[in-house]
Description:
The structure holds two protein chains of two kinds. Chain A is an all-beta fold. Chain A contains no helices and ten strands. Chain A has strands spanning 5-7, 10-14, 19-24, 32-38, 45-50, 56-59, 62-67, 72-77, 86-93, 106-111. The radius of gyration of chain A is 13 Å and the shape is globular. By secondary structure, chain B is an all-beta fold. The termini of chain B are far apart. Classes of the chains: A mainly beta, B mainly beta. The A-B interface holds A 31-32, 34, 42-46, 49, 51, 89, 91, 93, 96-105 and B 4, 31, 33, 40-45, 48, 50, 55-56, 90, 94, 96, 100-110.
Amino acid sequence: ILNVEQSPQSLHVQEGDSTNFTCSFPSSNFYALHWYRWETAKSPEALFVMTLNGDEKKKGRISATLNTKEGYSYLYIKGSQPEDSATYLCAPRRTSYGKLTFGQGTILTVHP
Amino acid sequence: DTAVSQTPKYLVTQMGNDKSIKCEQNLGHDTMYWYKQDSKKFLKIMFSYNNKELIINETVPNRFSPKSPDKAHLNLHINSLELGDSAVYFCASSQGGTSGLTDTQYFGPGTRLTVL
């Protein structure tokens, strides 16, 4: 069983705050790490796929880093906005054929 | 245009019934998946098909049977529904094959199944 842990489980911040959360996963047999954003009543939406140790990805105010040797990834949001409120899921992939194992997610609420 | 669509969106049925959920993708992807969102809100893979061939089959009761008539469709049939089958089921698709390590999955809107 692949143990994927995300912390914190939930987070409340004020509009304009910067925030970050963590995804931890076993470092063995690593292929890729996916981050998804999941708004209430919608479907999960892909943010990033990272494959190499030290990878950094950026999309607007959201960025992510990857450490495959120690098995963690950080997701950062700069200047949070209410529309950033969502559940952020990470999912490492340990096989070549696409099986993702999702963490429970970090629920972010940004208050105006 | 909806990339990955599922029908129905809501399904309420009695225990013991047989039901199907349909999934279609118009992205031209080769690989499709079924996930179940469990009671703790985890998304857990159930099945995956690549070009109509089953490639992932997790430990799922054999009352659940996926069917892929073509690579744009992956349907989920559930026999003899039980209370514990109540959940949200998500379909997803990805390019698969040669897209390699960065293969990204695109999710449908989910089907909320309630078994009474």
